[in-house]
Structure formats: structure tokens, C-alpha cells
Specification:
The complex is a heterodimer of chains A (368) and B (246). Chain A is an alpha/beta fold. Chain A has two domains: 238 residues, no CATH class; 100 residues, abc type-2 transporter like fold, CATH 3.40.1710. Helix content of chain A is 67%, strand content 6%. Chain A has 14 helices and four strands. Chain A has a four-stranded mixed beta sheet with strand order 2-1-3-4, sandwiched between helices. In chain A, helix 3 links the parallel strand 1 and strand 2. Chain A is elongated. Chain A starts with a helix and ends with a helix. The radius of gyration of chain B is 18 Å and the shape is globular. The longest helix of chain B is centred in the C-terminal third of the chain and has 16 residues. In chain B, strands 6-7-8-3-9-10 form a six-stranded mixed beta sheet, sandwiched between helices. A four-stranded antiparallel beta sheet of chain B has the order 2-1-4-5. Chain B is of the alpha/beta class and 246 residues long. Classes of the chains: A alpha/beta (368), B alpha/beta (246). Chains A and B meet through helix 1 and helix 8 of A and helix 3, strand 6 and helix 4 of B.
Chain lengths: 368, 246
């Protein structure tokens, strides 16, 4: 046990003395989280629009006011004829044009009906959709306001509630995703690099010749990373909660427990990679290509798995981050207990056991 | 019993096969206590395989092998406690200081912290390393690292130390100094098992064996070998043996 302690202390020296390791361990998680949280977002803010108001009465003015004060839109310019519409789209920065027909207020009063045209730039289909929907919603709202007692013949007004993420905040999705990605990156890549480094410098040979058992060597190398990854997980959760307001509705203990399981899974994957590779570079490359990209693309982090072609969906099933994301989203957003995530937990656990078994086998073969 | 205490390494008919490939073909030799035993051979002759077996890293296919009195099949753990090992890479942690390296290697052999302190002090004085004791290994010249690597390999006072091409990439003067350290340890009763590519170094050994294609082609004192093969230096012996095979 004393030997083992010395080994772990040595490992901490390695980590704390290497600027790059420290940067990866503590710089990247925070920077990534902030980047993803603030930059990549599918909410629309301050989209530039143009208004072609052919009526210029008090109703169109009020409605324009309401649309512009919603926070989603910013008036770029007022148009004066139809030709300008095409022109302003071509110039590129206008996402939406709202056209009020002539005598808008009059029509509304007399015929109880007026035409409003919404033209959007669908070269970005998602944005276009969202903007159009926002505009319609605001307009409907406005109608109710100016006409509270309207005897509208039999109307069905659907009331939509977005459960668990009522404001459809993108960051709710990103925090679990980032956590899954970063813990995978740190745990798997750092351990595989640190083990292959010992092979490269020849110190692994010396360790193997020593009375230390192979299992002690491996565990000794991994322990510091379990500890540091755990700190990282906590930092991400704290940032998520206090900077981005992502709720933690479920049990914190369960959440941390699941994080530890995921960290261990990633670490055992890292060990497996290191038993298959000889140099730090290969280990790093494999970690990056095999772990990083798929864990972003195929984990359901950014792109919904249900929309992928079937073969890809199968590959998604073997990505550990996929299961972890499901687990933490359930715990954080839905606030469910272990009874609802035991299946996913079991799958992660199974993956960990598999990685460890393969590593042990490979390690023995290498010794032969 | 008498023979066992004298022959610290005892190898009879060591065979190691990898599938159909025979890496070690019925090797037999002994190494005596306090002897400097040179283990020579071209690359791929099977030297590394033998060393790995003797160090308890790999198990032999068949044969009778005893290292420091322990069986290479069953008692590899005990063998590991009684040997030291140094490779051509010098195997120190570059981002640790001199004392940290010593403390780490002492620690994994289970030496108590107090004992490590005492021995470290003696070692630093002996190597005249007191001024660099808190220097990182990567800031030390190669020759210094080599000396330290050797001292660390024998820090737990093993009965045998295996040196796998310990002088690779080091200038002749440093090599000479290094061999002085080896002589001193051998004089104190430690057995030295060394592989090398430098034929002049082979002449420093008490006895040498030359491996060719998995077999021991020659084994004697350097002087006898030179006589037998009628050459003036070990290089000649080595070349003649290699040619015979071709």
C-alpha cells in the first residue's frame, strides 16, 4: 500500500508539472463550456428585419412596435416598395420582411380581417422557421389584446407547454452534452497518453521489472485522473447551474454517482487504448478521432439520434456518452430517481467491464 | 547446495518459442556471484527474450532456470525483488528531480522512508550530486543521467543487476567512468549481467557469451575467445562467428 501511495504521488507530480496537461485538465473544460453555452445557441436574438408598411395607420404601428419590442427582432430599415424586398434579402443581413397591406386598419375594422405577409430568408431553414413562428405568435397575441371580447366563431387555441425546458433553452442541452464530451476527453485521452508515455520513455519496463504488480501500475496511473475528472464534473455542474441556470432537479448524490461511473468507463476505455498503442501520438490521435468526434456527433448531443440512418443509429448505441447524456438529462431536468435510469446505468457499467477485460487480456499478451 | 550459492544464475536447456519461431534454442549457462557477464549477439539473435525471461517478465517454454535461487516459472515475484534493471533509455522520469526519482524507485521496492533518506544522502555524496539534487532530470547531461540510472537500478541492493545496452549514446570518457562504477559493484559482490554493442566494452567483462540465431555460439573469457578464434580483439571473434553461420 505504501508503494502504491508513492506511485500515485509521482503521478500527481507528472500532472502538476506539465503545463499542457494542466491546460487540458482545467482550461479546456471551462472554455468549452462557456463557448458552447454562449456561442452555439439556437435561440434567436436581435434578428434583423425590414418592414414594408403600406398602410401606416395606428394599428400597423402598434403591431410593429410590439414585434420590435419582443427582443427577437431588430428593425434594419423601412421599405417603400415591393422591389426593395428582393434587394434587401440579396444584401444578406435581413432575415425577415413583414408586409402590411394597404388600409390594414380599415380592413380589420370593416371586414374583421386584414392581410399580413411574412417573407423570410429560408436559406437558413431553421432560423426562418423559428422567426416566422415568433412573428405569428406575436401577431396573434396582439389580436387578442386589441380585441379582448371578440366574438370569434369557435376557435381552438392550442396551448403548448414545453416540459422540462419551458423556454427551449439550448444550454439545457449543451451542459449535459459538454459534460459527457469533456469527461470522455479528459479521462480517456489523458490516461491513454500518460500510460503510453511510460512506454515511450522506457520507464514502463522498469516498473514491470519491479515488484509492483501490473494491476497496481495501472490503478496507480488512473487514480489521479479519477480524482481530477471528478473535480471537473463538479465544476461543470456548478458553472451550468450558476452561469447558465441549468436546474438540477434530481438527487445530486445520484448525479455525482453516475458521473463517477461514467468517468470510470472513460478511464477504462483510455486504458484499453493505451494497451493497443505504442506511442503518445497514436494514443492521442485515436482518442481524438475515435472518441471526440463521435462523442459529439453520435451521442445525441447535437444531432438527434432518431433522425439518423439506421446503421448510424446502431453505432450510436455503443457510444458511452449517449447513455450518460440520457442519464444526466433525466436526473437534472426531469428530476427522476435511480428507478428511471437503471437500464442506462447498467449499460455503462457493462461497457466499463468490457473495456477492463480487454485491457487486462491485452496487457497480459504484451507481457508474454 | 554449494553450486547453487555460487551460480547466481543457472540456465539449463532454456527454450522459448513464439508460435513456430524459436527465439531461444536450448540455452545453457551459469553466472557466478560477483561476476560481470557479457551477453552479446546481433539484433534479433534472441538476447532480449532471454533477459525478459531472467527478469521474470516472460515465462520460458521449457528448461530449468534459476535466478538468485528462485525458479523462473513459479517464483517471478521473488526474482523481481532480488534484481535490478537498467535499459538503454536510462528510464528516469524527466519531469521529476533527482531526489524524487530516487525516492520513487526506492518506494516501489518497499524500502522504508527513513532508510531511503539515509541511502539517498550517501548516494548523493558518492556521486557528488548534492548540488543538483533538486534539479529535474531533463536538465542533467546524459552522462549524469546514466550514472544516476545505474545507481537507482541498484538502490534496493539487488543480488543481480541486468544492464541492457547501458552505454548507448554516451561518449567514451563517460563510458569508462561508468564501467568503473560497474567494477566497484561487482567487487562488492553484485552480479552484473550486461548486453552491449560495443566490442571494446565486451573485453571489460569477466566472461562473455555470444548468441547467434537463438543459440549460444561461444562462451568463455574474452582472452580465451580471442585465442580460440585467433584474433586480437572481440570484434574479430564476433565477425568470425557471424560468418560461420552464413
Amino acid at each position: 500500500m505504501k508503494r502504491f501511495k508513492g506511485f500515485v504521488i509521482k503521478e500527481f507530480y507528472h500532472i502538476f508539472r506539465d503545463v499542457r496537461t494542466m491546460a487540458i485538465l482545467f482550461g479546456i473544460p471551462i472554455v468549452q463550456l462557456l463557448l458552447f453555452g454562449f456561442v452555439i445557441t439556437n435561440e434567436i436574438k436581435d434578428a434583423k428585419i425590414a418592414i414594408f408598411d403600406q398602410s401606416k395607420d395606428n394599428i400597423t404601428q402598434k403591431l410593429s412596435q410590439k414585434i420590435l419590442s419582443s427582443g427577437y427582432f431588430l428593425l434594419e430599415k423601412n421599405l417603400n416598395n415591393y422591389n426593395e424586398i428582393n434587394q434587401s434579402f440579396k444584401e444578406g443581413n435581413i432575415k425577415l420582411v413583414i408586409v402590411f397591406e394597404k388600409d390594414f386598419a380599415k380592413h380589420l375594422e370593416k371586414e374583421r380581417k386584414a392581410n399580413l405577409q411574412i417573407i423570410s430568408d429560408a436559406s437558413e431553414p431553421n432560423t426562418a422557421n423559428i422567426l416566422v413562428n415568433y412573428t405569428i405568435a406575436i401577431t396573434n397575441d396582439f389580436l387578442k389584446e386589441i380585441n379582448p371580447n371578440a366574438k370569434v366563431p369557435l376557435q381552438i387555441i392550442p396551448e403548448v407547454r414545453m416540459l422540462y425546458n419551458p423556454d427551449l433553452k439550448g444550454v439545457f442541452m449543451f451542459v449535459p452534452g459538454i459534460m459527457a464530451m469533456l469527461l470522455m476527453l479528459i479521462s480517456a485521452m489523458m490516461t491513454s497518453i500518460s500510460i503510453t508515455r511510460e512506454k515511450e520513455t522506457g520507464t514502463m519496463e522498469v516498473l514491470l521489472v519491479s515488484p509492483l504488480k501490473p494491476i497496481q501500475i495501472i490503478v496507480g496511473k488512473v487514480v489521479p485522473y479519477v480524482f481530477l475528472s471528478f473535480i471537473n464534473a463538479v465544476v461543470i455542474l456548478i458553472l451550468g447551474k450558476f452561469v447558465f441556470g441549468v436546474p438540477i432537479n434530481g438527487s445530486i448524490l445520484l448525479l455525482l454517482g453516475e458521473s463517477v461511473l461514467y468517468i470510470l468507463t472513460a478511464l477504462s476505455l483510455g486504458i484499453m487504448i493505451s494497451t493497443l498503442t505504442k506511442t503518445q501520438q497514436t494514443a492521442m490521435l485515436i482518442s481524438m478521432l475515435v472518441l471526440m468526434l463521435p462523442s459529439i456527433l453520435l451521442s445525441g448531443f447535437i444531432f438527434p439520434i432518431e433522425n439518423m440512418p439506421t446503421p448510424l443509429q446502431f453505432i450510436c448505441q455503443i457510444m458511452p456518452p449517449k447513455w450518460f447524456i440520457i442519464i444526466i438529462k433525466n436526473i437534472m431536468l426531469k428530476g427522476v430517481g435511480f428507478a428511471y435510469v437503471w437500464k442506462e446505468t447498467l449499460i455503462l457499467f457493462g461497457m466499463m467491464v468490457f473495456f477492463i477485460l480487454v485491457s487486462v487480456k491485452k496487457f497480459k499478451i504484451r507481457l508474454e | 547446495m554449494q553450486e547453487e550459492t555460487e551460480n547466481i544464475i543457472y540456465v539449463r536447456d532454456l527454450v522459448k518459442k513464439f508460435g513456430n519461431f524459436v527465439a531461444n534454442d536450448h540455452l545453457s549457462f551459469e553466472v557466478k556471484k560477483g561476476e560481470i557477464f557479457g551477453f552479446l549477439g546481433a539484433n534479433g539473435a534472441g538476447k532480449t527474450t532471454t533477459i525478459r525471461i531472467l527478469c521474470g517478465l516472460s515465462s520460458p517454454t521449457s528448461g530449468e532456470i534459476k535466478v538468485a535461487g528462485f525458479d523462473a516459472f513459479k517464483e517471478t515475484e521473488k526474482i523481481k525483488r532480488n534484481i535490478g534493471y537498467m535499459s538503454q533509455k536510462f528510464s528516469l522520469y524527466e519531469d521529476l528531480t533527482v531526489t524524487e526519482n530516487i525516492r520513487f524507485y526506492g518506494g516501489i521496492y518497499g524500502i522504508s522512508r527513513k532508510e531511503i533518506k539515509v541511502r539517498t544522502q550517501i548516494l548523493l555524496e558518492k556521486l557528488k550530486f548534492e548540488e543538483v539534487k533538486n534539479t529535474l532530470i531533463k536538465d542533467l547531461p546524459l552522462g549524469w543521467r546514466q550514472k544516476l540510472a545505474f545507481s537507482v537500478a541498484i538502490f534496493h541492493q539487488p543480488k543481480i543487476v541486468f544492464l541492457d545496452e547501458p552505454t548507448g549514446g554516451v561518449d567514451p570518457i563517460t563510458r569508462r567512468q561508468f564501467w568503473e562504477m560497474i567494477y566497484e559493484e561487482a567487487h562488492n559482490g553484485m552480479t552484473i549481467f550486461v548486453t552491449t554493442h560495443y566490442m571494446d566494452e565486451a573485453e571489460y567483462c569477466d566472461r562473455i557469451s555470444i548468441m547467434v540465431e537463438g543459440k549460444i555460439a561461444a562462451l568463455d573469457t574474452p582472452l580465451n575467445l580471442m585465442k580460440e578464434y585467433e584474433t586480437k580483439n572481440m570484434e574479430g571473434v564476433f565477425l568470425k562467428l557471424a560468418r560461420n553461420i552464413e
